[in-house]
Design goal:
single chain, 168 residues, alpha+beta, Immunoglobulin-like, three-stranded antiparallel β-sheet, 2 helices, rod-shaped, disordered N terminus
């Protein structure tokens, strides 16, 4: 019985030390929480997660067809990291991939999470103009024009009637 117990403990101990040796040469991808829907004209892109303390975390926003946008941040001493940045993305579906680097060790990319970028306006130089704002401005312009048009239309009609009655 003592031999069996010794074998079990030594096997567990050997397995534990082997796993710990592998951990020293391997970094797992960091965990993260990403937005499911992102409105680039209205919101600030925000992503957060956990990594090894003081690791450099790289976030890659990648569209199926097109370019990718890398963002980097250093994790705090407790391993927490976050990125809050105003970025303008085209409408479409993006994959978010994350990896970490701690000195010479670099993890694999995480499993991709999908994010839908929904454009609700126009980005013009440094201005962000929402479609609702454009509609409101057009409505404010259209109503006075419609009132002026109606006024002159009725005046024209009244003048036409007056000329017709004058010639009778």
């Amino acid at each position: 019985m003592a031999v069996f117990t010794t074998l079990i403990f030594s096997g567990v101990f050997l397995g534990f030390t082997t796993a710990r040796a592998e951990d020293r040469n391997f970094l797992a991808p960091p965990s993260f929480i990403s937005p499911k829907d992102f409105y680039p004209i209205e919101e600030v892109f925000y992503i957060e997660g956990r990594a090894e303390p003081s690791a450099i975390v790289t976030v890659l926003l990648q569209k199926a067809v097109g370019s990718s946008l890398p963002l980097a941040v250093q994790a705090s001493a407790s391993g927490e990291w976050s990125i809050a940045k105003k970025i303008v993305l085209e409408s479409g579906t993006y994959e978010i991939l994350v990896r970490q680097q701690l000195q010479d060790l670099v993890s694999d990319w995480s499993s991709p999470q999908l994010m839908q970028s929904i454009v609700t306006g126009i980005h013009f130089f440094s201005w962000n103009i929402l479609y609702t704002e454009i509609s409101l401005v057009l409505l404010i312009i259209f109503i006075p024009i419609a009132i002026v048009f109606s006024y002159f239309f009725w005046k024209y009609r009244a003048l036409k009637l007056w000329i017709k009655n004058k010639n009778l």
